[in-house]
Specification:
The complex is a heterodimer of chains A (315) and B (275). By secondary structure, chain A is mostly helical. Chain A has two domains: 1-59; 78-314, MetI-like (MetI-like fold, Orthogonal Bundle). Chain A is built from twelve helices and no strands. Chain A has helices at residues 2-59, 77-84, 87-118, 125-137, 140-162, 175-203, 207-215, 220-231, 233-248, 252-257, 269-278, 283-314. Chain A starts with a helix and ends with a helix. Chain B has 275 residues and is mainly α. The two termini of chain B are 26 Å apart. Classes of the chains: A mainly alpha (315), B mainly alpha (275). The interface between A and B is large, with 95 and 92 residues. Chain B: This is Carbohydrate ABC transporter membrane protein 2, CUT1 family.
Amino acid sequence: MRTEVDVDGAYMEKRKKSDVKAKRMSRIKKILTYAAFVGPALLFFLTIQIVPFIMGVSYSFTSWNGVSSAVEWVGLDNYIKIFTDDSKFFNSFVFTTKFMLAAVFISNIIGFGLALLLNIALKTKNILRTVFFIPNVIGGLLLGFIWQFIFIKGFASVGNLTGLSFFNQPWLGDEVTAFWGIVIVFAWQISGYMMVIYIAALQSVDKNLLDAAKIDGASSVRMLGSIIIPLILPAFTICFFLTISMAFKIFDLNISLTGGGPFNSTESVAINIYQEAFQNNRYGLGSAKSILFFIVVAIFTTVQVMTTKKKEVEA
Amino acid sequence: MDEKYTTKTLLIELFAICLGILFLIPFYFVIVNSLKGFSEILLDAAAWPRELMFSNYAEVWEILNFPRAFLNSLIITVFSIIGIVLISSMAAWKMVRTPGKISSILFILFVSAMVIPFQAVMIPLVKLGGILGVMNSIPGIIMMYFGFGVSLSLFLYHGFVKTIPLEIEESAKVDGCTQFGVFWRIVFPLLKPITVTVVILNTLWIWNDYLLPLLVLQDASLRTIPLATSSFFAQYTKQWDMGLAGLVLGITPIIIFFLFLQKHIIKGIAAGSIK
């Protein structure tokens, strides 16, 4: 009897061991499969985005010029310099903020207006949707060149034909009109995109609700204000988020349309950083600027999403 | 909102058509003037050309080395997108199907990086690219697009995978399919609608991107369409006859792409933004 128990015990022990081993094997296998699926994405993501970002933070405390291997630690000097002795950078921030405000409002008003128009059962609505969206597929760089021609030659010839003084201004040569020039082109590019998002939202609004309101005698304006807009607030969150971040990071369109001129009056932060780093070869200073830029972009976008989300809940 | 087609609708329709024409006028100016001689453009930019000068295009085709630039843009866009689709769909699926701390931390990391502006990464990236030996090379820039594209694409896939019922995958697992088998044979085909969105969003971005190629690709033979156009414009400032022909060439491929796939593109854009 005793031997039998022993044999049994040994058998159980062995089984337990192989169980543990099998469990461990399957755990290792699980980890390996996880790594095989997630690893490639993580590897590229870390090498291309996260590592350079961390490097950038540390460069921002140095006087690195991009060439010499000796990188000198300068502490907060770059940041102090930016805040006390760099009016060009400050001006570019002011320009970018003003531009963002104007661009966000105008392109969302146009985009939402177009969406309301095309939400009506028009016969040409599909063609028009395509037409309004076309500028969006062309990159900012080429658009800027296209509009350079429109502002310089196209507007002048329209001005000759119509005699309207609006067209006869030196559009890109004057600080005020150059600012609005960029806003116009940005709105021309982006409103079709916003329109597509707003149309999708408008189509999700329950028709019965609108019919009921109509029977109750609500006017179109009233329905828009009290039913439609509150229902599609999430679309406004998305569109504001997209336009804010696109407008604030403007580079391509800016560089090809005005190149930052006249007299640096339309130089965006992105252009300023680019020039500081790659034309003045002040990589350390450029890095410090880019970190500040990151902080501002991050604050802007989080605050914006949070406030609009809060409104959604209240509504 | 009205279902009936009334006079009011007709008036709105006419107004909308006028707006549409207004939107297209810049294209009219660019195309018409690209077919004129230089002095004719200066004389009157709004007029129809007296004689169509296709020679502008022939000349610009050579100067821009258009076939080369087109091919570079095409190779970079296609391979970047294949890579982005593969790595982000695989990672997103596995992360959704393996709930836990690691997956949620990784997800937050991937997604929050979307707030980092390119400018905050580009300076060290050039340095790092030099160390890794991927500067001035097409495979190098493709790998960089993998890294930049993965955040948004993974986010979109992640949201979509959650809507796929687990049962389908489980029955396949019972049938003895490996993890890779389950993913490629069952899950990936189901992801098609969101893959279309991912491909479209990334195509519009990568095809039109200017700053990353400007920093990475120095050789003239590696230039993409935006790079070739901008260096051409810098050389031929205010020579509108040439410049406009170059612009028309530059925007044609992406406009054709859009017109062919417009239904998918507009749907994909809407889906991609609402998620």
